[in-house]
Specification:
Two copies of one chain form a homodimer. The first copy, chain A, has about 425 residues and is an alpha+beta fold. The first copy, chain A, is built from 14 helices and 15 strands. In chain A, a hairpin with a 5-residue loop joins strand 12 and strand 13. In chain A, helix 3 crosses helix 4, helix 7 runs antiparallel to helix 8 and helix 13 crosses helix 14.
Chain lengths: ~425, ~425
């Protein structure tokens, strides 16, 4: 078989960049995610079993059953979850992406994000804010009540607002935010402000009264990660647009579940290449240390896969106050990522590098050749179920997944 | 007389930095500005007469009389203005600051910004957005109607919101915005988003209905200069806190009126040192050139006087898309300003310079010794009344005003 890898890769990153994700609405997962059913629970990262599932994912699964009203207590939920009654699957198998534990259950509201270039739709839940939250494995009453409020109050008003405004353009929002000190993953302060500002004039009219509108706008505006989930679903539509291109060595999925980390490669279909998830080099919140940390977790690495996040750190020097390091480290991370990517983004640029496009499209050939793994920004969850976030930092994807993928590529294409 | 200039200067910049400006409300100028009266019209910069008044200031004065209902036509307004019936005075003589033409008339609503450290209050009008606006010298029906809407609809709702929230902290807002790609003067994209986000949850409740709330939030959120006026009044409270310190060589006012540019120095009381206003090195809007430009104009240089704006350009590399130049020029401008300032700000920092404090407190000794004038970011108005903005750019304050001030300083203090 004759293949032109560079041509295939160019096609892939063109598809990434031509994707135009629009957030079009919010709906229950069971109504919009193809294949979702009552006993299906989605989680971040590559496949996991109840037995090898990390603490935060277990915690979020427990919380999901409490939220769904399927269990009355954490004990009952655990029993049901270990009984074999439920099917567990990666979000990525269902056109979805979930931050941290990434657990999505049938009744949860999800954002619908459509790549208007192709019509493909991706999904992601509603963001709960920072701290003690389901996605970090917490499931206390406070956590479940907030989830209910998101489902009953915030979600429907945001859905109606999105419909009234005719959808919200995620690519334009990200392009602006990268000029306002965001990396597009771990720092979304500007993007969340932009998001709230675009929604607020509509929420005043779609919320049931002025007090409710006020409460929703305040929640969105004070949560610096409000827009993380639609951003992730937006990035999923970008990378999916470049998936399954014959002969391409570009990574289209990188995801972790606190146990394993896995990647998928455009020219290698739906095969996962996995390794144990690494420990994050993090700045810990007061009272926590590396001993408390879950291993690397979450689908939010879809942002780096699409060319932002850790790859755009040179846009976000103030992020180092949250994850550690210096502004120089932030610039160097971006410069390093140019070494292992196929192209430079035509819509996302970095002012301080003279508006150079962000490094886009991780090429497994370059990663192996340069022996330089992708670096990603991430939050860190507590390793035990029920606790929550303990820090944030930077982590490198293990080299072995790229080596394994390159071997599989060579075998498949006979080179 | 024995004076310790460094000690005096330290006292001045400490006062700048310890000021804590809060936006507390909005009210008609005549009700809150001490000394405001029916026949008083304020303008930007040092003193001006009708005869030597620049086009944009004339245009805004005409607009003000139309807005006040004192004149029925531009012709009638011009006649009244040249009749000697009205008193013209710099905003700075009335604890006020106005962007560009800076015209403030008795019925216009103004922001009240209080330095809670000292109780001093400064004032500034409501921002109209970009383009064809009164502050650029335009006075068409569209301009006057917008001013009316600001006075009748937006202003009262914002006033009630500010009161309900207990005031809004301008220093904290600016500190955040400098970490989000703003310079605090010509680029206030992030600051205006922050401002709108803080106000929106209250405006939903203080506007007369949901549609009005929606309209106000949209206007504030889409105007990247929404917060410029309260920022300027905030900076005025900072620099005023350091004014009139015996023996200090720190500049406490820099302002232009399209004819002249003037400065005041802390240790030299209320004397203006003036020179003809320079022409701005600008990026012009399509269809305009330097031939259309008014000379440098506006009180917004109060931001540079306080240690942000052009002095913090290293925080705002994306600003070069609006004013010309490269990100390297932006960094160099900030680095140069350290050469002529007395200290570094303890609340305003620049991520890319390893969170170094912004250069704060222009020292006339250093300006003269280094032969390096302060550089400021600014908008450019059309030179004729009635047109509006034609560009934006960077300009240096003429050296002669610092030389004159230094001579006066030496004379006063006998050195």
């Amino acid at each position: 078989m004759t293949i032109n890898i560079d041509q295939a890769n160019q096609k892939v990153i063109d598809a990434f960049m031509d994707a135009r994700p629009m957030v079009t609405g919010v709906a229950p997962a069971r109504d919009v995610i193809p294949g979702m059913h009552d006993n299906l629970l989605l989680h971040a990262g590559p496949p996991a079993t109840w037995e090898n599932m990390s603490g935060p994912v277990r915690g979020a699964m427990i919380g999901a059953l409490l939220f769904e009203g399927r269990a009355k207590s954490a004990e009952e939920a655990e029993e049901m979850l270990s009984s074999g009654k439920f099917e567990f699957a990666p979000c990525h198998h269902y056109d979805s992406t979930g931050p941290m534990a990434g657990v999505m259950s049938p009744s949860m509201l999800v954002y619908i994000v459509e790549n208007t270039t192709t019509g493909y739709k991706a999904f992601s839940g509603l963001n709960e804010g920072r701290g003690k939250v389901l996605r970090m494995g917490a499931y206390s009453e406070e956590v479940i009540n907030r989830m209910q409020w998101l489902n009953d109050v915030l979600g429907p008003a945001v859905d109606a607002a999105l419909k009234e405004m005719g959808g919200l353009d995620i690519r334009t929002l990200l392009a602006k935010a990268l000029h306002m000190g965001d990396d597009g993953h771990n720092r979304l302060d500007a993007a969340s402000l932009l998001y709230t500002n675009l929604l607020a004039p509509y929420i005043t009219k779609t919320a049931k009264d002025a007090d409710t509108a006020s409460e929703i706008i305040k929640f969105l505006g004070e949560n610096a990660l409000s827009v993380l989930n639609p951003v992730m679903a937006g990035c999923k539509t970008m990378t999916q647009a470049g998936h399954n291109v014959e002969g391409s060595t570009i990574v289209t999925v990188m995801a972790r579940n606190g146990t394993d980390i896995g990647i998928r490669v455009s020219g290698l279909g739906d095969q996962w290449f996995t390794a144990p998830a690494p420990v994050v080099d993090a700045l810990y919140f007061p009272g926590f240390t590396e001993k408390d940390a879950s291993r690397d977790i979450g689908d939010s690495t879809i942002t780096e896969t699409a060319g932002i996040g850790g790859f755009a750190m040179a846009s976000a020097p103030a992020l180092v106050t949250f994850i550690g390091g210096t502004p120089r480290d932030a610039i160097n991370t971006t410069l390093d990522m140019y070494e292992i990517t196929f192209g430079e983004h035509k819509h996302f640029s970095i002012p301080f590098l003279d508006f150079r496009g962000t490094p886009t499209g991780v090429d497994i050939r370059k990663v192996v050749e340069k022996n330089m793994p992708p670096r990603v920004n991430t939050g860190v969850a507590h390793k035990d179920p029920g606790v929550g976030q303990v820090g944030a930092g930077v982590v490198s994807v293990p080299m072995s997944v790229f080596e394994d993928a390159l071997v599989a590529f060579a075998e498949k294409y006979g080179i």
